[in-house]
Amino acid sequence: MSPSTKYLLTFAFLLSFPGFLYAQETEKVYLSGKGNDQTVTWDFFCTAGRNSGKWTTIAVPSNWELQGFGKYDYGFAKDTTRGKEKGLYRYFFNVPAARKGKRINLVFEGVMTDAEVKINGKLAGPVHQGSYYAFKYDVSGLLTYGAANQLEVAVSKHSANESVNDAERRGDFWLFGGIFRPVYLEVLPAANISHLALDAKANGDFKAMLTVAKTAIAGTVSAQVYDSNGKKIGVPFSSKISARDSIVYLQSKTISPRLWSPEYPHLYKVKVDLVLNGKITHTVSQKFGFRSIVVKEKDGVYVNGVKVKFKGVNRHSFWPSSGRTLSKKLSIMDVNLMKDMNMNAVRMSHYPPDDHFLDVCDSLGIFVFDELAGWHGKYNTPTGTKLVKELLRHDVNHPSIIFWINGNEGGHNYALDADFDTGDIQRRPVIHAWENFRGFDTQHYREFDYGIGNYMQGHDLVMPTEFLHGMFDGGHGAGLEDYWEAMWRDPLAAGGFLWDFSDEGVVRSDKNNEIDTDGNHGADGIVGPYREKEGSFFTIRQIWSPVFFEKREITPAFDGSFRVENRFAFTNTMECTFSGKLVKAADPYDASAGNETEFSIVSPGIAPSGKGTVKLNLPSNWKSYDFLYVTVTDPHKRLIFTWSWPISRPSVIADQVVKQRGSGKVETSGVDSLFIVTANGVRVSFSKKTGQLRQVENAKGVIGLRNGPVLQEGATNFSGFIQKMDGNNVVIESVFDKKNSFNTLQWTIYPSGWIKMKVLYFPGAYFTSFVGVNFGYPEAQMKGVQWMGNGPYRVWKNRMKGNQLGVWTKAYNNSATGEPPFLYPEFKGYHSNMYWCRFNTTEQPFTVVAEQEDIFLRLYTPKVSDDPYNNLAPAFPSGDISFMQGISGIGTKTQKTDTTGPMGMKYSFYDYEKDQNRAKELVLYFDFSGR
Fold first, then answer.
1. What's the pLDDT tens digit per position in 656-694?
2. Helix axes 480-489, 535-543, angle to 10 degrees
3. Boundary of a domain, candidates 484, 514, 543
4. Per the database record, which ranges form the Beta galactosidase small chain/ domain (predicted)?
């Protein structure tokens, strides 16, 4: 490092000290940046892998793999550099001479994995082992005041302590190395309050436990509580201390405090002064919330006296370009995304998070289950005891934390449970993830029928800390409605946590900056690596809505009333905002034909867990619109969801769009194998043997839709075709035969050029994954679609929620969920409630209109992603474009489709002995005019 660089660092460090005006408060002076959006350059030497064997520089905090050093490793991969890959850090800083006599701690918020720290060539203390825990050294006696100091940190990617490797490094997640969280100096008076732990109950009882250091004389500690606006709450309270005291308690009572909960995250602040010789020697301040957690055996979890169910997700600390080095901005983003999905809880899998993430959970409001690391392995007792103490010391005062988790999936050291119990002033509950422990059954990935052990069949509280394991587009929203409704109804169900929040894709600088999810290992998220929203995001938002609309059909007799259930724990729906909108949809040929009318709705007064009615003040002409929307926002103006209902049925829209009549004439011709019909410039050919569409053309050229309809699942046994006139229309239809041609096809060609297809059919099996018809159309010629129906995301049989009715436009893409380029919504797949669809192609457009409700539009077959478990297995017809009356579900990483609940099961149909009057009917209209 050059002298000028040292000078600049020294000068910047001097400026960072606020000076002696506020010397009674703890000073925090950063030697690193505060996150991935604000870093400081340190000297760096990597011992193995990329860019190793030379001194260079690195951004701190960071994971060195994302800075171009060492080797990328996923937890399941064989690490060829284990024991060899280390990072050597060096940094110079200055401490003003005026700080001599102070207590100066060197604090590391997180280092992966073993950290040997030296100041001016001398060890600061024992090597720290354990990645995710803040640790500190008193370096007061090692510093040279008023001159440059050299900080050296030797970081081993893997630990010399095998129990640390078992707990942290041998897991189903990316492995990184480095000083990945901030580093700073903590400057305190010699006599100081070294730690403050709070317990603030819902009844207003307040208790503080202080650790006081180096008080050579007697004195007092005095405290004052403030609200979020800085207003004093109550009167000061204090306690005397003697020269021998190290632990001091303060107590007070706040009358009718505003309680902390995810719905109303009210925060307070306490300011505590250490007073010696009549002077304030040291002051500490701490935010907190009044709230109580009580677990009632064989009953439930009560927060502030209210029984709650957890709508949670698992979250790794992760960002594609910086690994586990994050920022407060990203924490705010993540918590907002969770709350946008109507979640109220997050599990810290499988290690404690950044401090700023917990701060955001406190301020925005979300329950936190904080976890001691341990994937399938565990810390030994001496190591675990030390790390539990560090975890509790760092996180104890966050009101968002309501549970501790001692390890995951067998990574539980039972000897550490008592350390949580005795070390936490609040005595929060302790659970083991994936174990029946202390009255909680937290087993992971159980099938919907809960047929294993006591799961939903016993007497303990059921709270899976992982369920519906996402992979690509499976899990999460798929299956959630069945699970959640069962959980909501069962008094012993306390909710659960989806796996997991985001796809863990790493930017690989060694692979042209591609995003690598290690195949299917990291593609488990509801959102993408950069938080791209997948379809399940919106499904979860609707299913976990705290305002629940009972199913209601809109008919001419509709009086504007909906039955509503309030699934909030603490909020009356009167505090929410309800608004309505009527939508007249555009048609395929005139976007200006659509219009909207908004109207107000009086918010109903329904108490938490209650049911009631919301009444819409609809305008008199509401029946002339196509769709009804109701939007609800919470008391903080956050969108809960927008529901939509059809007013106009597809048959009504079909009558408006389809022009069956025309002034022209339908002409017929043919060859040995084809019926050929021409009307209004459209020429179509049908097979005389199968009735299938063979070719379409108009004055502009050929349209490539052909080779349909093909029944799936069912026998395409149309036969005995005849051609006849029906007034001015030409009809081509098959003959019904109960034994050999029990499925029938009829084409009607109108003088306008519109063509009607009517299929009467029997599904081919008692149990089937899908039913409908499909056609061929070259994928290379598809540019995009515009459709009226539910959108814009695709659906599965067990993931129908989350979309809205409307007119949607989507350009062709080949996106596969959970894989680069993470472009959503995906083009391919099933889309529900199709009224009509206009296909935009490289040839010319064509339009298809449905006459029945509940028609699914299928657009090609999505990519088959890497699924070694063969659990996702969505079924698709053999053609390219399909119009279905039943579609397949999708499984999860750990479950087959049909074990995610009734919605994932196959359809069942009777064949009614092939009675044609009982056949399923599908009617479509085609416009091949090219307009």
1. 999 877 778 999 998 889 999 999 999 999 999 999 999
2. 20
3. 543
4. 732-847
